[in-house]
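Figure S7 source data.
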Amino acid sequence: MNHFTYKNKELYCEDMPLAQLAAEVGTPFYLYSNATLTRHFQAFDAPFQNLPHLSCFAVKSCSNLAILRLFANLGGGADIVSGGELFRALRAGVPAARIVYSGVGKTREEMAQGLKADILQFNVESEQELDALQEVAVGLGVTARVSFRVNPDVDPKTHAYISTGLAKNKFGIPIEQAGAVYARARQLPNIRIQGVSCHIGSQLTQVSPFIESLRKLKDFIGRLQAEGIVISHLDLGGGLGIQYREEEPPHPAEYARAIQAELAGLDCTLILEPGRVIVGNAGILVTRVHYTKQGPTKKFVIVDAGMNDLARPSLYGAYHAIRPVRDTGLGLEVADVVGPICETGDFLSRDHEVPVSRPGDLLAVMSAGAYGFTMSSNYNSRPRVAEVLVAGDSYHVIRRRETQDDLIRGEEIPAFLQEKA
Ligand code: LLP
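Tokens for the predicted LLP complex:
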């Protein structure tokens, strides 16, 4: 359920017509619905209300300060993977006590940043990382609260690039080696063992892989406890999928029910790291048609957004539905919706039915709220687009469109090159 709906053949975000927004903000732009974000956060979080738990929004999926603040206001925390994301989360007002730090390659500087902020926990992914964290914590005279991310070797049945819990993936500590790492951690004076974590992948459309890994984790926690290691936090990561097209992912309530049934008897605070399930269908990318052209075998609709603005179709072959902002009644046709980037891989939709469009028409690229703006780049020296948040009948530019000056900020021509031009 989202708040992008047609009224009189015009696409609205809540009570705001998209055509009006495009006229005032320019295109392309990312557009998020406050009501949808709120609803999705609550739909995910509420089913866990009977358990001690914390929903730490995965900042990488959508990292705008306004959106992080919105979830913090709803009681959410943040799952971060870099010093930059920590900076954002703190700036947005997420309390440090609700921040968990994931990722395989944390630098010592990033560890220090997290320790100084006194975040809830570091999800440590290797023994060497543990040693580094111990060293940094000693230097600062503090104790690091730690959870180890274990790799349970479970197939999440999703795209290979976003599968993370298989033995062949770079993530976590193989579950069979993890016991020894906990035993070592126990000896380290500036490390306080707090939890067990895992994250097996993204865009999961079945509950069973989550349950399979939870069972392995439970068994592992039992073994740790038998050794006298107390686990107070269990972090199950993120990964619940959304509907882009015909997928039928479990409803968050069903996911929560299955997890809670499996958790019975475990005395832990549950941490969850949802990203896509909350923001994916709460955001879209609005783009304008520049031109259309009919090639010998294909029709192309050339729009003003490209793979630099939304990388998912090019990178994962991901499907994003394309809808007309004004339903002209011209129907659908099979065409490629492509951007202005100089690469054949630059497409937003390929070989699918899309609205018959004419130059100047506006199109909505749906389900773009997660890993949309955050994966965008300046490739082809294209300024990154604006982000807009609609609440009811008002809108707020939550990130201004970049300018050409933004493109060259920080660049310099060294003196030895400056003589000739
Ligand atoms: N926690 C950890 C440790 C993660 O690595 C991720 C995502 C999440 C939580 C959030 O997962 P979610 O609930 O959003 O599935 N760029 C890709 C997705 C990459 C996911 C990376 N990790 C895409 O556009 O599909």
